[in-house]
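Design a sequence for this backbone.
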């Protein structure tokens, strides 16, 4: 597992972030979420963040070249295995990733976390995340405290989780990211699991899928 190089695929709120962070912690892997990094750049007001915000504020994918720049920079700094959450999201990004130096993408696999659109809409309507440690959950998980159960930080709601923005993200996902699943499926590198159930149940499926495919 230490040498795992994994891209996590799946629709918004399927559990990529939660499962990616869990797996990375358990196996000592690097973890990088392009969405999280873009939001950080926006908050910090960097040139890249200002450019990215033009697209994020319209709930659109940011241009391939912009995401590729931050991903290739991050991957080039990794010494061991890693997990990418939210990349690649277009066929062009997947093809560019295939062209990364072979030692940095050795035994690359893609894992799709499958969840129906209706379940996702319900999840997103309750989703909240910690502005400090990136914990993500639903309002049910924090009924008692109203603050992050992991670090006590303030919880926020993502602007792109509002119903209209969510519908748009799903439409873009179906148009631009479903073909990425086909990209990995046709090359035989795709693992697929159901994302329905508790975080622990899904986590077990993730590990079983990775272990049974060497
Ligand atoms: P996420 O946190 O993964 O849901 O990503 C939030 C938003 O960041 C997405 O809806 C996109 O607008 C943008 N984004 C994240 N990753 C990518 C990517 N690989 N390509 C294009 N846009 C991305």
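Sequence:
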């Amino acid at each position: 597992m230490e040498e795992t190089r994994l891209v996590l695929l799946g629709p918004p709120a399927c559990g990529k972030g939660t499962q990616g962070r869990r797996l990375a912690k358990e196996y000592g892997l690097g973890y990088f979420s392009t969405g999280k990094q873009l939001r950080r750049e926006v908050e910090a007001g960097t040139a890249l963040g200002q450019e990215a915000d033009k697209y994020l504020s319209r709930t659109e994918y940011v241009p391939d070249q912009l995401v590729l720049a931050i991903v290739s920079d991050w991957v080039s700094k990794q010494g061991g295995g890693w997990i990418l959450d939210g990349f690649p999201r277009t066929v062009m990004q997947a093809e560019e990733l295939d062209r990364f130096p072979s030692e940095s993408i050795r035994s690359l696999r893609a894992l799709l976390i499958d969840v129906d659109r209706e379940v996702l809409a319900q999840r997103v309507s309750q989703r909240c995340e910690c502005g400090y440690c990136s914990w993500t959950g639903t309002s049910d998980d924090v009924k008692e405290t109203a603050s992050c159960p992991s670090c006590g930080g303030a919880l926020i709601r993502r602007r792109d989780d509002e119903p209209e923005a969510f519908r748009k993200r799903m439409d873009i996902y179906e148009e631009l990211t479903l073909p990425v699943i086909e990209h990995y499926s046709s090359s035989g590198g795709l693992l697929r699991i159901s994302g329905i159930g508790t975080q622990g149940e899904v986590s077990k499926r993730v590990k079983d899928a990775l272990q049974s495919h060497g």
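The pocket of adenosine monophosphate is lined by residues 12, 33-36, 38, 55-56, 61-62, 67, 86-87, 89, 93, 160, 169 (CB under 6 Å).
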